[in-house]
Design brief:
The complex is a heterodimer. By secondary structure, chain A is mainly alpha-helical. Chain A has 2 domains: about 120 residues, no CATH class; about 120 residues, no CATH class. Helices cover about 65% and strands about 0% of the residues of chain A. In chain A, a hairpin with a 5-residue loop joins strand 1 and strand 2. Chain B starts with 7 loop residues before the first helix and ends in a 12-residue tail after the last strand. Helix content of chain B is about 35%, strand content about 20%. In chain B, a hairpin with a 4-residue loop joins strand 4 and strand 5. Chain B is elongated and about 85 Å long. Chain B is an alpha+beta fold. Chains A and B meet through helix 2, helix 8, helix 9, helix 10 and helix 11 of A and helix 2, helix 3, helix 4, helix 5 and helix 6 of B.
Chain lengths: ~325, ~220
Protein backbone atom coordinates (compact mmCIF):
# COMPACT_ATOMS: atom_id res chain seq x y z
CA UNK A 1 0.00 0.00 0.00
CA UNK A 2 1.44 3.34 -1.05
CA UNK A 3 1.17 6.30 1.23
CA UNK A 4 -0.29 9.41 -0.34
CA UNK A 5 2.20 12.22 -1.18
CA UNK A 6 0.38 14.57 1.11
CA UNK A 7 0.82 12.17 4.00
CA UNK A 8 4.53 11.89 3.20
CA UNK A 9 4.90 15.67 2.96
CA UNK A 10 3.15 16.06 6.26
CA UNK A 11 5.43 13.50 7.85
CA UNK A 12 8.49 15.21 6.41
CA UNK A 13 7.48 18.60 7.73
CA UNK A 14 6.73 17.01 11.09
CA UNK A 15 10.21 15.50 11.15
CA UNK A 16 11.75 18.74 9.99
CA UNK A 17 10.05 20.58 12.82
CA UNK A 18 11.48 18.31 15.46
CA UNK A 19 14.82 17.32 13.95
CA UNK A 20 15.46 19.90 11.25
CA UNK A 21 17.75 22.50 12.75
CA UNK A 22 21.36 21.58 12.13
CA UNK A 23 23.11 23.93 14.59
CA UNK A 24 23.42 23.71 18.34
CA UNK A 25 24.70 27.27 18.67
CA UNK A 26 21.43 28.53 20.18
CA UNK A 27 21.31 25.79 22.77
CA UNK A 28 24.94 26.43 23.66
CA UNK A 29 24.18 30.09 24.22
CA UNK A 30 21.30 29.19 26.52
CA UNK A 31 23.65 26.77 28.27
CA UNK A 32 26.02 29.62 29.08
CA UNK A 33 23.17 31.84 30.36
CA UNK A 34 21.61 29.05 32.44
CA UNK A 35 25.00 28.10 33.80
CA UNK A 36 25.68 31.67 34.86
CA UNK A 37 22.34 31.90 36.68
CA UNK A 38 22.95 28.50 38.28
CA UNK A 39 26.34 29.65 39.49
CA UNK A 40 24.79 32.86 40.82
CA UNK A 41 22.09 30.93 42.67
CA UNK A 42 24.71 28.68 44.26
CA UNK A 43 26.86 31.71 45.02
CA UNK A 44 24.02 33.33 46.96
CA UNK A 45 23.63 30.13 48.98
CA UNK A 46 27.23 30.54 50.13
CA UNK A 47 26.41 33.37 52.55
CA UNK A 48 23.77 31.37 54.44
CA UNK A 49 25.07 27.89 53.78
CA UNK A 50 24.77 26.65 57.33
CA UNK A 51 21.52 28.53 57.90
CA UNK A 52 19.77 27.04 54.88
CA UNK A 53 21.49 23.72 54.22
CA UNK A 54 23.57 22.87 57.28
CA UNK A 55 22.57 20.96 60.38
CA UNK A 56 22.17 24.03 62.58
CA UNK A 57 19.94 25.90 60.20
CA UNK A 58 16.79 27.93 60.79
CA UNK A 59 14.56 25.03 59.83
CA UNK A 60 14.82 21.46 60.97
CA UNK A 61 15.40 19.21 57.95
CA UNK A 62 12.84 16.63 59.08
CA UNK A 63 10.15 19.28 59.49
CA UNK A 64 10.96 20.92 56.19
CA UNK A 65 10.60 17.62 54.37
CA UNK A 66 6.84 17.73 54.71
CA UNK A 67 6.84 20.95 52.65
CA UNK A 68 8.59 19.19 49.78
CA UNK A 69 6.35 18.42 46.84
CA UNK A 70 8.47 15.46 45.77
CA UNK A 71 7.38 12.09 47.14
CA UNK A 72 10.93 10.88 47.78
CA UNK A 73 13.08 13.98 48.04
CA UNK A 74 16.74 13.25 47.52
CA UNK A 75 19.55 15.38 48.87
CA UNK A 76 23.27 14.86 49.07
CA UNK A 77 23.29 17.27 52.00
CA UNK A 78 21.26 14.84 54.07
CA UNK A 79 24.18 12.39 53.85
CA UNK A 80 26.65 14.79 55.42
CA UNK A 81 26.43 15.98 58.98
CA UNK A 82 29.41 18.24 59.61
CA UNK A 83 29.83 21.82 58.48
CA UNK A 84 33.08 20.87 56.77
CA UNK A 85 31.37 18.38 54.46
CA UNK A 86 28.47 20.73 53.73
CA UNK A 87 31.03 23.25 52.51
CA UNK A 88 32.87 20.58 50.56
CA UNK A 89 29.70 19.52 48.74
CA UNK A 90 28.80 23.14 48.07
CA UNK A 91 32.22 24.02 46.64
CA UNK A 92 32.09 20.91 44.47
CA UNK A 93 28.66 21.95 43.17
CA UNK A 94 30.01 25.40 42.30
CA UNK A 95 33.02 23.93 40.49
CA UNK A 96 30.73 21.67 38.47
CA UNK A 97 28.52 24.65 37.62
CA UNK A 98 31.58 26.60 36.45
CA UNK A 99 32.58 23.66 34.26
CA UNK A 100 29.07 23.63 32.81
CA UNK A 101 29.36 27.31 31.90
CA UNK A 102 32.69 26.68 30.19
CA UNK A 103 31.29 23.74 28.29
CA UNK A 104 33.48 21.07 29.86
CA UNK A 105 31.57 17.83 29.20
CA UNK A 106 28.24 19.65 29.54
CA UNK A 107 26.17 16.47 29.44
CA UNK A 108 28.05 15.15 32.45
CA UNK A 109 28.47 18.42 34.35
CA UNK A 110 24.88 19.40 33.54
CA UNK A 111 23.60 16.11 34.91
CA UNK A 112 25.72 16.48 38.02
CA UNK A 113 24.47 20.06 38.40
CA UNK A 114 20.89 18.79 38.34
CA UNK A 115 21.77 16.42 41.17
CA UNK A 116 23.70 18.95 43.26
CA UNK A 117 21.35 21.88 42.69
CA UNK A 118 18.35 19.65 43.26
CA UNK A 119 19.98 18.50 46.48
CA UNK A 120 20.20 22.06 47.73
CA UNK A 121 16.56 22.71 46.79
CA UNK A 122 15.27 19.52 48.39
CA UNK A 123 17.37 19.95 51.49
CA UNK A 124 15.46 23.14 52.25
CA UNK A 125 12.27 23.50 50.17
CA UNK A 126 11.34 26.45 52.35
CA UNK A 127 13.71 28.74 50.46
CA UNK A 128 13.05 27.55 46.92
CA UNK A 129 12.09 30.50 44.75
CA UNK A 130 10.61 30.62 41.29
CA UNK A 131 13.97 31.18 39.64
CA UNK A 132 15.24 27.89 41.07
CA UNK A 133 12.47 26.00 39.36
CA UNK A 134 13.15 27.62 35.99
CA UNK A 135 16.91 27.06 36.23
CA UNK A 136 16.48 23.42 37.22
CA UNK A 137 13.99 22.86 34.41
CA UNK A 138 16.30 24.39 31.79
CA UNK A 139 19.23 22.41 33.21
CA UNK A 140 17.37 19.16 32.70
CA UNK A 141 16.63 20.07 29.08
CA UNK A 142 20.18 21.21 28.38
CA UNK A 143 21.61 18.03 29.82
CA UNK A 144 19.84 16.08 27.10
CA UNK A 145 21.78 17.74 24.27
CA UNK A 146 25.51 17.97 23.46
CA UNK A 147 25.70 21.70 24.04
CA UNK A 148 29.48 21.71 24.27
CA UNK A 149 29.79 22.15 20.51
CA UNK A 150 29.79 25.95 20.71
CA UNK A 151 31.07 28.49 23.26
CA UNK A 152 33.14 25.80 24.92
CA UNK A 153 36.51 26.56 26.43
CA UNK A 154 38.00 23.10 25.65
CA UNK A 155 37.50 23.71 21.93
CA UNK A 156 39.25 27.08 22.09
CA UNK A 157 42.71 26.89 20.54
CA UNK A 158 45.45 29.47 20.33
CA UNK A 159 46.34 30.08 16.73
CA UNK A 160 49.40 32.25 16.65
CA UNK A 161 50.43 35.01 19.06
CA UNK A 162 47.41 36.67 20.58
CA UNK A 163 44.95 34.92 18.27
CA UNK A 164 42.35 32.34 19.19
CA UNK A 165 39.99 30.16 17.22
CA UNK A 166 37.29 27.73 18.04
CA UNK A 167 37.45 24.22 16.69
CA UNK A 168 34.82 23.79 14.00
CA UNK A 169 31.80 22.08 15.51
CA UNK A 170 31.34 18.47 14.54
CA UNK A 171 28.15 17.09 13.13
CA UNK A 172 25.51 18.65 15.29
CA UNK A 173 23.13 16.23 16.81
CA UNK A 174 19.58 16.23 15.53
CA UNK A 175 18.59 15.32 19.05
CA UNK A 176 19.65 18.87 19.99
CA UNK A 177 17.00 20.23 17.69
CA UNK A 178 14.42 18.10 19.46
CA UNK A 179 15.53 19.50 22.81
CA UNK A 180 15.35 23.05 21.44
CA UNK A 181 11.78 22.47 20.29
CA UNK A 182 10.85 21.10 23.72
CA UNK A 183 12.22 24.21 25.38
CA UNK A 184 10.35 26.46 22.94
CA UNK A 185 7.04 24.71 23.49
CA UNK A 186 7.56 24.69 27.24
CA UNK A 187 8.10 28.45 27.21
CA UNK A 188 4.86 28.95 25.30
CA UNK A 189 2.97 26.82 27.81
CA UNK A 190 4.64 28.61 30.71
CA UNK A 191 3.45 32.00 29.45
CA UNK A 192 0.00 30.64 28.66
CA UNK A 193 -0.63 29.27 32.14
CA UNK A 194 0.90 32.37 33.68
CA UNK A 195 -1.67 34.41 31.74
CA UNK A 196 -4.48 32.12 32.86
CA UNK A 197 -3.49 32.71 36.49
CA UNK A 198 -3.70 36.40 35.82
CA UNK A 199 -7.23 36.46 34.46
CA UNK A 200 -8.62 37.85 37.68
CA UNK A 201 -10.51 41.02 38.42
CA UNK A 202 -7.71 42.40 40.50
CA UNK A 203 -5.06 41.84 37.91
CA UNK A 204 -7.08 43.10 34.98
CA UNK A 205 -8.00 46.26 36.87
CA UNK A 206 -4.32 47.00 36.97
CA UNK A 207 -3.77 46.52 40.69
CA UNK A 208 -0.29 44.95 40.26
CA UNK A 209 0.79 47.94 38.23
CA UNK A 210 -0.22 50.19 41.12
CA UNK A 211 1.69 48.25 43.69
CA UNK A 212 2.27 50.16 46.93
CA UNK A 213 5.99 49.89 46.42
CA UNK A 214 5.58 51.81 43.20
CA UNK A 215 3.37 54.30 45.01
CA UNK A 216 6.17 54.90 47.50
CA UNK A 217 8.76 55.46 44.82
CA UNK A 218 6.58 57.26 42.33
CA UNK A 219 4.76 55.78 39.38
CA UNK A 220 6.74 55.42 36.18
CA UNK A 221 4.26 57.56 34.26
CA UNK A 222 3.52 59.98 37.06
CA UNK A 223 0.70 59.80 39.56
CA UNK A 224 -1.11 62.73 38.02
CA UNK A 225 -1.16 61.09 34.62
CA UNK A 226 -2.52 57.86 36.07
CA UNK A 227 -5.25 59.62 37.99
CA UNK A 228 -6.20 61.61 34.93
CA UNK A 229 -6.16 58.56 32.65
CA UNK A 230 -6.94 55.53 34.81
CA UNK A 231 -7.91 53.54 31.76
CA UNK A 232 -4.27 53.63 30.64
CA UNK A 233 -3.32 51.34 33.49
CA UNK A 234 -6.14 48.95 32.70
CA UNK A 235 -5.07 48.87 29.06
CA UNK A 236 -1.50 48.21 30.12
CA UNK A 237 -2.56 45.34 32.37
CA UNK A 238 -4.70 43.86 29.63
CA UNK A 239 -1.84 44.21 27.16
CA UNK A 240 0.51 42.25 29.40
CA UNK A 241 -2.02 39.48 29.83
CA UNK A 242 -2.74 39.40 26.09
CA UNK A 243 0.98 39.29 25.37
CA UNK A 244 1.43 36.23 27.54
CA UNK A 245 -1.78 34.62 26.35
CA UNK A 246 -0.91 34.80 22.66
CA UNK A 247 2.88 34.56 22.86
CA UNK A 248 2.66 30.85 22.12
CA UNK A 249 0.65 31.56 18.98
CA UNK A 250 2.45 34.47 17.38
CA UNK A 251 5.94 33.22 18.16
CA UNK A 252 5.54 30.65 15.38
CA UNK A 253 4.93 33.34 12.76
CA UNK A 254 8.07 34.19 10.84
CA UNK A 255 7.45 37.93 10.64
CA UNK A 256 6.55 38.62 14.25
CA UNK A 257 8.83 36.09 15.93
CA UNK A 258 11.90 38.21 16.44
CA UNK A 259 10.10 41.44 17.38
CA UNK A 260 8.16 39.34 19.90
CA UNK A 261 11.34 37.84 21.35
CA UNK A 262 12.85 41.31 21.57
CA UNK A 263 9.73 42.63 23.25
CA UNK A 264 9.76 39.78 25.76
CA UNK A 265 13.41 40.39 26.63
CA UNK A 266 12.83 44.13 27.06
CA UNK A 267 9.70 43.54 29.15
CA UNK A 268 11.53 41.14 31.45
CA UNK A 269 14.40 43.56 31.89
CA UNK A 270 12.04 46.44 32.69
CA UNK A 271 9.91 44.40 35.09
CA UNK A 272 13.03 42.97 36.70
CA UNK A 273 14.50 46.40 37.25
CA UNK A 274 11.30 48.10 38.43
CA UNK A 275 10.04 45.24 40.60
CA UNK A 276 13.44 44.08 41.72
CA UNK A 277 13.18 40.37 40.92
CA UNK A 278 15.98 40.75 38.42
CA UNK A 279 17.49 37.28 38.61
CA UNK A 280 14.22 35.56 37.75
CA UNK A 281 13.50 37.95 34.91
CA UNK A 282 17.03 37.58 33.51
CA UNK A 283 16.50 33.84 33.48
CA UNK A 284 13.19 34.28 31.65
CA UNK A 285 14.84 36.60 29.11
CA UNK A 286 17.53 33.99 28.50
CA UNK A 287 14.84 31.34 28.10
CA UNK A 288 13.41 33.48 25.27
CA UNK A 289 16.72 33.10 23.44
CA UNK A 290 15.71 29.58 22.41
CA UNK A 291 13.89 31.27 19.54
CA UNK A 292 17.00 33.01 18.23
CA UNK A 293 18.15 31.65 14.86
CA UNK A 294 21.43 29.78 14.91
CA UNK A 295 22.90 32.09 12.25
CA UNK A 296 22.63 35.07 14.55
CA UNK A 297 24.24 33.17 17.37
CA UNK A 298 27.03 32.06 15.03
CA UNK A 299 27.60 35.70 14.11
CA UNK A 300 27.77 36.53 17.80
CA UNK A 301 30.25 33.74 18.22
CA UNK A 302 32.42 35.20 15.46
CA UNK A 303 32.29 38.52 17.22
CA UNK A 304 33.33 36.89 20.50
CA UNK A 305 36.15 35.14 18.65
CA UNK A 306 37.38 38.41 17.20
CA UNK A 307 37.27 39.89 20.68
CA UNK A 308 39.47 37.07 21.94
CA UNK A 309 41.92 37.64 19.08
CA UNK A 310 42.57 41.23 20.09
CA UNK A 311 46.03 42.30 21.20
CA UNK A 312 45.24 42.57 24.91
CA UNK A 313 48.42 44.35 25.83
CA UNK A 314 50.62 46.84 24.01
CA UNK A 315 53.45 45.08 22.21
CA UNK A 316 56.67 44.77 24.13
CA UNK A 317 59.93 46.29 23.05
CA UNK B 1 50.21 54.26 10.04
CA UNK B 2 48.53 57.12 11.75
CA UNK B 3 49.31 58.51 15.12
CA UNK B 4 47.16 60.52 17.42
CA UNK B 5 48.58 63.92 18.23
CA UNK B 6 47.47 64.66 21.73
CA UNK B 7 47.18 68.27 22.90
CA UNK B 8 50.28 69.79 24.47
CA UNK B 9 48.54 70.48 27.75
CA UNK B 10 48.19 66.72 28.11
CA UNK B 11 51.64 65.57 27.06
CA UNK B 12 53.73 68.43 28.38
CA UNK B 13 55.24 70.31 25.45
CA UNK B 14 57.58 73.30 25.90
CA UNK B 15 55.55 76.19 27.16
CA UNK B 16 53.01 73.96 28.90
CA UNK B 17 53.47 72.67 32.38
CA UNK B 18 50.59 70.33 33.28
CA UNK B 19 50.68 68.20 36.43
CA UNK B 20 53.14 65.33 36.35
CA UNK B 21 50.47 62.63 36.64
CA UNK B 22 48.53 63.98 33.66
CA UNK B 23 51.73 64.11 31.62
CA UNK B 24 52.51 60.53 32.51
CA UNK B 25 49.08 59.28 31.39
CA UNK B 26 49.13 61.49 28.32
CA UNK B 27 52.47 60.12 27.20
CA UNK B 28 51.27 56.56 27.82
CA UNK B 29 48.27 57.26 25.58
CA UNK B 30 50.55 58.82 22.95
CA UNK B 31 52.85 55.83 23.05
CA UNK B 32 49.97 53.39 22.79
CA UNK B 33 48.46 55.26 19.87
CA UNK B 34 51.79 55.16 18.07
CA UNK B 35 52.72 51.55 18.75
CA UNK B 36 49.26 50.01 18.37
CA UNK B 37 47.31 52.02 15.82
CA UNK B 38 43.61 51.52 15.92
CA UNK B 39 43.75 50.15 19.45
CA UNK B 40 40.73 52.08 20.56
CA UNK B 41 38.56 50.79 17.75
CA UNK B 42 39.52 47.27 18.77
CA UNK B 43 39.18 47.83 22.49
CA UNK B 44 35.90 49.74 22.30
CA UNK B 45 33.59 46.69 22.29
CA UNK B 46 35.60 45.24 25.14
CA UNK B 47 35.28 48.42 27.17
CA UNK B 48 31.55 48.68 26.45
CA UNK B 49 31.03 45.02 27.37
CA UNK B 50 33.00 45.43 30.58
CA UNK B 51 30.91 48.51 31.42
CA UNK B 52 27.64 46.69 30.87
CA UNK B 53 28.89 43.73 32.91
CA UNK B 54 29.95 46.06 35.68
CA UNK B 55 26.54 47.75 35.77
CA UNK B 56 24.77 44.39 35.76
CA UNK B 57 26.92 43.18 38.63
CA UNK B 58 26.31 46.36 40.58
CA UNK B 59 22.55 45.95 40.19
CA UNK B 60 22.64 42.22 40.96
CA UNK B 61 25.06 42.17 43.85
CA UNK B 62 23.86 45.28 45.60
CA UNK B 63 20.65 43.49 46.45
CA UNK B 64 18.35 46.30 45.53
CA UNK B 65 20.34 49.15 46.96
CA UNK B 66 22.40 51.09 44.48
CA UNK B 67 22.86 54.59 43.17
CA UNK B 68 19.59 54.52 41.23
CA UNK B 69 17.20 52.51 43.40
CA UNK B 70 16.71 51.69 47.01
CA UNK B 71 14.31 48.83 47.40
CA UNK B 72 15.49 47.98 50.90
CA UNK B 73 14.13 50.98 52.75
CA UNK B 74 12.11 49.83 55.76
CA UNK B 75 8.85 51.01 54.25
CA UNK B 76 9.57 48.91 51.19
CA UNK B 77 10.56 45.87 53.19
CA UNK B 78 7.22 44.17 53.20
CA UNK B 79 6.53 44.72 49.54
CA UNK B 80 9.69 42.93 48.52
CA UNK B 81 8.55 39.78 50.24
CA UNK B 82 6.10 39.38 47.41
CA UNK B 83 8.87 38.20 45.14
CA UNK B 84 8.31 34.59 46.01
CA UNK B 85 4.68 34.86 45.01
CA UNK B 86 5.27 36.27 41.59
CA UNK B 87 4.03 34.93 38.31
CA UNK B 88 5.75 34.77 34.94
CA UNK B 89 6.60 38.44 34.89
CA UNK B 90 7.56 38.96 38.48
CA UNK B 91 4.32 40.62 39.54
CA UNK B 92 2.73 39.62 42.78
CA UNK B 93 -0.33 37.43 42.56
CA UNK B 94 -1.63 37.13 46.12
CA UNK B 95 -2.54 40.10 48.25
CA UNK B 96 -2.02 38.22 51.52
CA UNK B 97 0.84 36.33 53.06
CA UNK B 98 3.29 39.19 53.07
CA UNK B 99 5.01 39.02 56.38
CA UNK B 100 8.21 39.25 58.28
CA UNK B 101 9.41 38.31 61.74
CA UNK B 102 10.68 40.68 64.36
CA UNK B 103 12.69 39.40 67.29
CA UNK B 104 13.71 40.88 70.61
CA UNK B 105 16.71 39.28 72.24
CA UNK B 106 17.40 39.77 75.97
CA UNK B 107 21.14 39.21 76.39
CA UNK B 108 23.19 38.32 79.44
CA UNK B 109 24.74 41.78 79.29
CA UNK B 110 21.35 43.30 80.04
CA UNK B 111 20.80 44.73 76.60
CA UNK B 112 17.86 44.15 74.31
CA UNK B 113 18.75 43.49 70.69
CA UNK B 114 16.08 43.87 68.06
CA UNK B 115 16.12 42.69 64.51
CA UNK B 116 13.97 41.17 61.88
CA UNK B 117 13.88 38.54 59.20
CA UNK B 118 14.43 39.14 56.40
CA UNK B 119 17.05 41.69 57.24
CA UNK B 120 16.69 44.61 54.81
CA UNK B 121 20.46 44.80 54.54
CA UNK B 122 20.67 41.31 53.13
CA UNK B 123 22.36 41.28 49.75
CA UNK B 124 22.48 40.03 47.02
CA UNK B 125 18.81 40.21 46.16
CA UNK B 126 18.30 36.51 45.61
CA UNK B 127 19.56 35.82 49.11
CA UNK B 128 17.02 38.27 50.52
CA UNK B 129 14.23 36.62 48.52
CA UNK B 130 15.10 33.24 50.02
CA UNK B 131 14.91 34.62 53.55
CA UNK B 132 11.58 36.25 52.77
CA UNK B 133 10.30 32.90 51.56
CA UNK B 134 11.55 31.24 54.73
CA UNK B 135 9.78 33.81 56.91
CA UNK B 136 6.50 33.31 55.09
CA UNK B 137 6.81 29.60 55.74
CA UNK B 138 7.53 30.10 59.43
CA UNK B 139 4.60 32.47 59.78
CA UNK B 140 2.33 29.87 58.27
CA UNK B 141 1.96 28.39 61.71
CA UNK B 142 4.33 25.47 62.27
CA UNK B 143 5.48 25.75 65.88
CA UNK B 144 8.50 23.51 65.36
CA UNK B 145 9.76 25.78 62.63
CA UNK B 146 9.40 28.75 64.96
CA UNK B 147 11.31 26.83 67.59
CA UNK B 148 14.15 26.03 65.22
CA UNK B 149 14.25 29.62 63.97
CA UNK B 150 14.54 30.95 67.51
CA UNK B 151 17.34 28.45 68.17
CA UNK B 152 19.06 29.65 65.01
CA UNK B 153 18.80 33.27 66.17
CA UNK B 154 20.19 32.32 69.57
CA UNK B 155 23.13 30.56 67.92
CA UNK B 156 24.11 33.68 66.02
CA UNK B 157 25.29 35.56 69.11
CA UNK B 158 28.42 34.60 71.05
CA UNK B 159 26.80 34.55 74.49
CA UNK B 160 23.57 32.71 75.14
CA UNK B 161 20.62 35.11 75.39
CA UNK B 162 18.21 34.66 78.29
CA UNK B 163 15.14 35.08 76.20
CA UNK B 164 14.03 35.72 72.65
CA UNK B 165 10.57 36.96 71.74
CA UNK B 166 9.34 36.41 68.21
CA UNK B 167 6.68 38.58 66.59
CA UNK B 168 4.97 37.97 63.29
CA UNK B 169 4.39 41.17 61.40
CA UNK B 170 1.83 41.48 58.69
CA UNK B 171 1.67 44.37 56.32
CA UNK B 172 -1.74 45.37 55.15
CA UNK B 173 -3.07 47.77 52.65
CA UNK B 174 -6.35 48.37 51.00
CA UNK B 175 -7.07 49.09 47.41
CA UNK B 176 -10.52 50.41 46.56
CA UNK B 177 -10.84 48.01 43.69
CA UNK B 178 -14.60 47.70 43.87
CA UNK B 179 -14.88 50.54 41.42
CA UNK B 180 -14.13 50.71 37.75
CA UNK B 181 -11.91 52.26 36.71
CA UNK B 182 -9.97 52.02 39.98
CA UNK B 183 -9.26 55.24 41.79
CA UNK B 184 -5.56 54.45 42.26
CA UNK B 185 -5.35 55.64 45.81
CA UNK B 186 -3.47 53.36 48.16
CA UNK B 187 -3.98 53.85 51.82
CA UNK B 188 -0.92 53.98 54.00
CA UNK B 189 0.36 50.59 54.91
CA UNK B 190 -0.02 49.41 58.46
CA UNK B 191 2.00 47.07 60.58
CA UNK B 192 0.29 44.63 62.87
CA UNK B 193 2.54 42.63 65.12
CA UNK B 194 1.60 39.45 66.92
CA UNK B 195 3.66 37.79 69.61
CA UNK B 196 4.37 34.24 68.51
CA UNK B 197 6.18 32.96 71.57
CA UNK B 198 9.30 32.94 73.69
CA UNK B 199 12.59 31.14 73.40
CA UNK B 200 13.95 30.23 76.81
CA UNK B 201 17.71 30.59 76.63
CA UNK B 202 18.39 28.48 79.71
CA UNK B 203 16.48 25.42 78.59
CA UNK B 204 16.74 26.20 74.86
CA UNK B 205 13.06 25.50 74.52
CA UNK B 206 10.25 27.22 72.69
CA UNK B 207 7.09 28.32 74.47
CA UNK B 208 4.37 29.35 72.04
CA UNK B 209 1.76 31.93 72.91
CA UNK B 210 -1.75 30.57 73.16
CA UNK B 211 -3.50 33.72 71.93
CA UNK B 212 -6.48 32.97 74.14
CA UNK B 213 -6.61 36.37 75.77
CA UNK B 214 -6.30 39.80 74.22
CA UNK B 215 -3.32 40.47 76.47
CA UNK B 216 -1.37 37.76 74.70
CA UNK B 217 -1.80 39.39 71.36
CA UNK B 218 0.49 42.06 70.15
CA UNK B 219 2.49 44.25 72.44
CA UNK B 220 6.12 45.00 71.98
Amino acid sequence: MRASPRWIAWGESWSRFWFGHPSLATLSLVRVATGVMLFYALFTYTFDLNGHLGGGGWGDAEILKKYDTLAWPYSIYSWVHSVYWVWAVHVLAMLIAASFIMGVKPVLTGGLSVVFYGSALHQNPGVVVEMDQVVLMLLIYLTLAPTGSHFAVPSLRQSGPGGYRWDPPGNDSQWGSFVLRLMQIHLCLFYFFSALNRLTDEWLLGAPLLHPRLAERGYPLGEGFLQAHPAAVVILAFSLVVFQLFYGVFIWGDRVRYPLVGLAVVLHLVVGLVWGDLSFNLMMAAWNWVFLPADWVEDGKDWAKSMLGLPWFPPQG
Amino acid sequence: MFSVRLPPWLTGQPGYNPPRLIVRFGRMAQWTAYRAPGWWEKAKPLVVMAGITHLALVVLLSGGRNALFDWRAPENLAYTTYFNLTDGFGFWVEPSGESYIRYKMYTQEGTVNEGHFPDPDTAPGLRYVRWAKAVNLVNRGDESLRASLSRYIADQVPSMPFRIKLYASQWEWRLPHNRFPPSFVWEKTEVEETLLGNHNGLTRSWVPVAHDTPADKGGR
